[in-house]
Amino acid sequence: MTALKEYTREGFWEITVVPATKKNRIQLVDMKPLLSHSQVRHRGWPFPFMRSQDENLYSHSFQSITIGEHVPKFEGFRLYEDGLFYWKGAMWENFEADYGNTVLSFGNVNWEITEMMLFTKRFYEQILSPEETIHIRIRLGGCKNRLLYDKRGWGSFGTRCAENIIVIEDNFNCSQLKASWQELARKYMKKVYVLFGENPDEESMIKSQNELLKMKLS
Fold first, then answer.
1. How far is it, in rounded angstroms, from Cα 72 to Cα 91?
2. If we measure between CA atoms, which residue out of 60, 105, 69, 61 comes closest to residue 87?
3. What is the DSSP string of the chain?
4. Residue 80: alpha-carbon gap to chain centroid
5. Cis before residue 48, ω within 30 degrees of 0?
6. Which residues have C-beta within 8 Å of that of residue 2, sequence separation ≥ 6?
7. Euclidean distance between the first and final Cα of the chain, in Å?
């Protein structure tokens, strides 16, 4: 993922998901179809983003790294035979002339984490049994001194974040993930917001999730 370093230095999202039991689960030939079937397609691009010119197949893994040409899209992922999935992407705020590295979008926190969790549910329910345990780690880098920001008129709010890297870790089994992925996403959202001096109510977070899930990528 060294190709992404230049674009993620000022701020990034990252997710690592790994089954607790280590064993080979996925054949190389099945990796791309499984990922394609699991993609979340509710915004202007799918999560995770894939296109053939960015992809590489290795002895034990499948990787894709996209460096934006016409849009500020800088992200990459790697999937291993044992089911470990790692994704990293630049914060889009860093490429907005009006924002730079001074804000973190309130709405984007909701949508990024919701997309991550919906993808995780879709992917792992295909390769794991209901009782198998999954470990998840979400990291936000470059958060220090950022404020939350809302494009719809709220402007900047909350308090400046004192943490440079926010880390969220959790364990659950596949049946819990399938039944409660939206609730888990909201729990992780709150962990981010607290570090910006905010504590949004459950209703507003559910509303934001539903706005995302009603969208469809054509």
1. 9
2. 61
3. -GGGHHHHSS-EEEEEEEESS------HHHHHHHHHHH-B-SSSS-BS---GGGEEE-SSEEEEEEE-SSS--EEEEEEETTS-EEEEEE-GGGG-TTTTTSEEEHHHHHHHHHHHHHHHHHHHHHHS-TT-EEEEEEEEES-TT-EEEETTTTEEES-----SEEEEEEEEEHHHHHHHHHHHHHHHHHHHHHTTT----HHHHHHHHHHHHH----
4. 18
5. yes
6. none
7. 29
More confident call, 102 vs 112: 112
d(CA 144, CA 151): 20
Cβ–Cβ under 8 Å, residues 185 and 202: no
Model's pTM, two decimal places? 0.93
Span 3-14, mean pLDDT? Answer: 88
Q: How many domains are there within the chain?
A: 1
Domain that residue 25 falls in? 2-214
Instruction: Give me the pLDDT at residue 68, please.
Output: 80
Give the pair of three-digit tokens for residue 215.
């969208």
The model's pLDDT over 137-153, given as tens digits with 9 standing for 90+, comes to 999 999 999 999 887 65
